[in-house]
Amino acid sequence: MRFMGPDCTFYQLEHLYNLTNQRHLQLHGSVAVPSPPAKLAETGGDRYYINQKTHIRFGHPNAPQPSMALLQLSKLPLFRRCGWLSSADGVFFLSKPSYLSHHPVRWTKAQKSCPVRSFATLKSGKVIPAKKKKRLDEVCLEKFQQYSRNYIQSWIIQGKVIVDGKVVTKAGHQVSDKAIVEIKAVIPKYVCRAGHKLEAAIEKLGVDVTGKVALDSGLSTGGFTDCLLQHGASFVYGVDVGYGQVADKIRRDERVSVIERTNLRYLTELPQKVDLVTLDLSFISILVVMPAVVNLMKEEATLITLIKPQFEARRSQVGGGGIVRDPSVHQEVRQKIVKGVEDLGFQCNGWIESPLKGAEGNIEFLAYFTKTTAADSTSQLNISKETTDNVS
């Protein structure tokens, strides 16, 4: 008879006992009855029944039960031990005081593959559940909090993350807490690529950020905020209509106040007026939020805005895939934004093309404004009907 190792199923074990008892009955006229280990017998181990007739099917109340030694060897679950072990413990064993084998039992996949613990551990009640594993990207986020999830997932796909000496390319790969995780990649300067866009504007347009209190609208991962802090900003209010996207490095920084689930268009006040505002907005025009921005700024303040033509142009001017390819549309959008912002009491000090394109490949622009005079309150709260119609 072929030996069935520890990977055999519950039903294979049942079949093995049926064949063994049938053969023993033919040769000796009685059913083979396994004897329990001495230690278990001394302590009142599980009960066994001798039947010399025809009750040889494993599972009958009077049928012989498998020996404890074989159960331990095969590591197969038989019955759930009620009372002092819960199903969450992941341990199943032969029920001691009563046998449930004459009742129909439906085994789930998890129950069939569940390992039986050692008898000493089982008797002591000190059952240690299997340690849970986590996704590789989640483990990396916990160990490398200065990086965003996008960066980490990108590195995993590129094969730059090593787990216990092996390269893993799947972000959902299950990893234990004790695994040694290494990242062999170029360390980014900012938490996301948006920081490089703002850095280009600060350096090329000569914007002074040192010691200023700033408002970063369209916070997202926090690229603009990270850039402002590294260039000397004293404090940053980060506003975003979404939530849960901010990198841990930014969220935990004492110089940052994260304001999520907030539309800048309806933000009326902050704990203090700001010296500098940066705008990185999507799916809304800059001119729509500018009245609210003016109310949050000091009388002498600075504005840096990222102009995205795909959200400023008319629908007919946006090509396939949401990409604006016509240079004349780019120029028209720039002129519209510059004029609209200047009408609110700002002066344009220059603009540049972003060194990085948008996520979909759109060309973007960065414009630098300074607030010259205190705009009239009426003009702050109202944009002309013609401008609003063009934006919508």
From TrEMBL:
Keyword vocabulary terms for this entry: RNA-binding
Start and end residues of each RNA-binding S4 domain: 134-199
Keyword RNA-binding: yes
Domain of life, per lineage: Eukaryota
GO biological process, one term: methylation
Family membership: Belongs to the TlyA family.
The protein's name in its UniProt record: RNA-binding S4 domain-containing protein
